[in-house]
């Protein structure tokens, strides 16, 4: 990962990092406040030689004392030194227990012994440290006195008495709090990075590029009110989301698909926004003057007729079984050159109908009469309908919901298309975040497209949208500048014979 990726991870998971840091701080504070304060007291004992009066003898005596320092340091924690202190101070502990609170050391190349005692009572700690210094001096004098003499060659003198400490040495509250913050911060960053590594959902264009070399032709921003206004291009043309569909329309025109202009629009899983993407793209294309045929080929859960507010009881399935002519069920919609073929009744064999020769001939005929043909197909992973249908089109457009679709699901959908030999025309990302760390990968950071959530002054309900759509569709049945449904395809003198053949092909048997 690059530095920008780490910055994005930190921005995206800043709440986790802050929470972990606060937890570390709270844990450190709780630990510090529940610990018993410990005070430290230290006495210092000087070791010197008492042998000889000449310079040579004094040098030898100093070397001898220096060699005994290590022994005397270890002797401090032995019962021979501890027991007299316990008796003198009346302590109710054993020598081993007392030794746990006592440490002794000697600075390098010196003849000083430092005796340190830690205890909850500062006065008690000082008394023990001083008593240990005196007891060590007495023990050394007894042990190191040669047989037959009354004087020890080594003398220990307490040169600094221990004093009661004013502040405890443990717990070190500032240090503990600092460590708690650092540990919590490190833990939070680790969790953030781990979440990012384990997160296999599509978050950025880079995730798509890692799975396919097909171009990213659109990025539709997330709109929390999309269910209330699914036809955003129709209801609010100035909305940034509408502009995103117009950008998709522009990019679609530059796709090199061997001259074909029939596309099946599908997704990996349900609820990725493929139907609303298909409809809004069709409206955007029609607004530009293109003659567009929108076919609801989702014969399992059709939604096109519901969103557009038109009658969907008769449609594609009736054409496929020869019950109706396509020219009779291909309905104009809105004040634009957009014609819609609803799904009709749900058949028991959707895959067989979509993969039939009759379906292929229908798409070929529509492709001759319209500039663009868009087919709204079911998701690829649950059923095979879209994969079967894609073989009869110029290519498939994959709709991927950011933050919802996983890379494994997208990879499986692409493999399903590749297995049947279909082409992927491009990828459209939906539900693209407009705020937060992920928004910057799409250019929505710092209000780059404005706050489209408040762009519209009013928000039409879904019922109002359907009513408005039906009114728009019904208004098209009488104007003279638009052909009636029975002639809902482009006609010319040169194409009249082909149109007759087209009608004959699909007429009831």
Task: Describe this entry's structure for a reader.
The chain has three domains: 3-35 and 171-198, no CATH class; 39-160, 2-Layer Sandwich (Alpha-Beta Plaits); 215-506, Rossmann fold (3-Layer(aba) Sandwich), CATH 3.40.50. Helix content is 45%, strand content 15%. The chain has 20 helices and twelve strands. Strand 8 (331-333) and strand 9 (338-341) form a beta hairpin. Helix 2 runs antiparallel to helix 7 (173-198) and helix 4 (79-89) packs across helix 6 (122-143).
Total of domains: 3
According to DSSP, the number of beta strands is: 12
Main sheet, how many strands, which sense, barrel? 8 strands, mixed
CATH 2nd-level architecture of the largest domain: 3-Layer(aba) Sandwich
Helix content: 40-55%
What is the CATH superfamily classification of the largest domain?
A: P-loop containing nucleotide triphosphate hydrolases
State the secondary-structure class.
Answer: alpha/beta
Bulk shape: rod-shaped
Strand content: 5-15%
What separation lies between the terminal Cα atoms?
63 Å
Characterize the quaternary organization of these chains.
Answer: single chain
Key traits:
rod-shaped, 3 domains, alpha/beta, four-stranded antiparallel β-sheet, Alpha-Beta Plaits
Please outline what is shown here.
The protein is of the alpha/beta class and 509 residues long. It is 45% helix and 15% strand.
How would the blueprint of this fold be written?
Blueprint: H1 3-12, H2 14-34, E1 39-49, H3 55-75, H4 79-89, H5 95-99, E2 102-105, E3 112-119, H6 122-143, E4 154-160, H7 173-198, H8 205-209, E5 216-221, H9 232-235, H10 240-253, E6 262-267, H11 274-287, E7 292-296, H12 304-308, H13 316-320, H14 326-329, E8 331-333, E9 338-341, H15 350-354, H16 357-369, E10 372-376, H17 385-390, E11 395-401, H18 407-419, E12 424-432, H19 462-474, H20 496-506
Parallel strand pairs: 5-12, 6-10, 6-11, 7-9, 7-10, 11-12
Antiparallel strand pairs: 1-3, 1-4, 2-3, 8-9
Helix pairs in contact: 1-7, 2-7, 4-6, 10-11
